[in-house]
């Protein structure tokens, strides 16, 4: 991925947009888009940091680039390419500053005890047969294409419907990783036949590499604060200091690349514990926990989650011989019985800041297979029948 190439694309489209605005006029939204492009150009020059307010215009621009609606000279850079280019600019801007964060996936028992807000909870398989069947079939097809040496399932508790028995039979070594070792052990006992359990290795691993440092930083910031406003500013400063590059991200403690790495139904949920962690710390001080959901913390947390998700994508591409990535991409709440079409209650929500999972892949990715499907789940507890319709996409790279 060429940062200079993406910079050129941003400059060209900014100039094109300004000229179009002068000739034809435009509304407030058009002017705001032009201003955002100018700011993104400044970020790419290494003159200021990127912030969450630019995520939406960045995604809109890269979506346009990949739509083939612009001349080839603009390039076809993805959202993933753009995030990597921005990280490179950030590294240049911070080159004289001391490194504040590091990718730290190993967790001691003591560290895990302080990460209750990040724990995945009991593994509960999906009750939707169509979703389960399509997910399992995609994974098994990918497994047949890989050499039967080693396989790695990261964040295994996020998707207990994975065909673990078949994977253990197919590969000589199968590693399952997550934060909660007892839950992983229970998953193996329920999903893998005894004859193949000796092939399975369990690994406590934080796929974001950030949870322990985040929890410690939150505690330190909130404990030192004089009040809620001071805590918010301290926390915002901590979040802005995140300086881990995508090249540092990993998948496993083992150095050897697995023949197949699998990340299923994990990507869109990475970093969801950040807000809960801050809320717990604020509550412990007797302050309003909803402060974690407002400015300045909410957008800063959104950007951090976006970055760690991109790091995970990059790790799958760099640290495995082949990889399956399956993720929820968008969701919408529907009114009506699950058997019918249902009426949208609100606009669809993009869970990865993009419309398609492929937009998260940088140009180095070579997609060997892809598939998408809809997953509909009941929403209990409502007076009227409602369901959640999720778009799930899968790629083999």
List the main descriptive attributes of the protein structure presented here.
15% strand; 397 residues; 12 helices; 42% helix; single chain; alpha/beta; 2 domains
Written overview of the protein:
By secondary structure, the protein is α/β, with parallel strands linked by helices. It folds into two domains: 91 residues, no CATH class; 267 residues, Vaccinia Virus protein VP39 (Rossmann fold), CATH 3.40.50.150. Helix content is 42%, strand content 15%. The chain is built from twelve helices and nine strands. Strands 1, 2, 3, 4, 5, 6, 7, 8 and 9 form a nine-stranded mixed β-sheet that branches. It is globular. The protein starts with a helix and ends with a strand.
**Continuous helix count:** 12
Task: Label the CATH architecture of the largest domain.
Answer: 3-Layer(aba) Sandwich
- Bin the helical content: 40-55%
What is the 3D form? Answer: globular
> In total, how many domains does the architecture comprise?
2
Strand segment count:
9
Beta percentage is 5-15%
The unreliable regions are none
What is the multimeric organization of the chains shown?
Answer: single chain
CATH class of the largest domain: Alpha Beta
| Ends apart, CA distance between termini | 17 Å
Per CATH, what is the topology of the largest domain? Answer: Rossmann fold
CATH superfamily of the largest domain: Vaccinia Virus protein VP39
Q: What is the string of helix and strand elements?
A: HHHHHHEHEHEHHEHHEEEEE
**Arithmetic mean of pLDDT:** 94
Structural class of the helices, strands and pairings? alpha/beta
Q: Describe the sheet with the most strands.
A: 9 strands, mixed
Report Rg: 22 Å
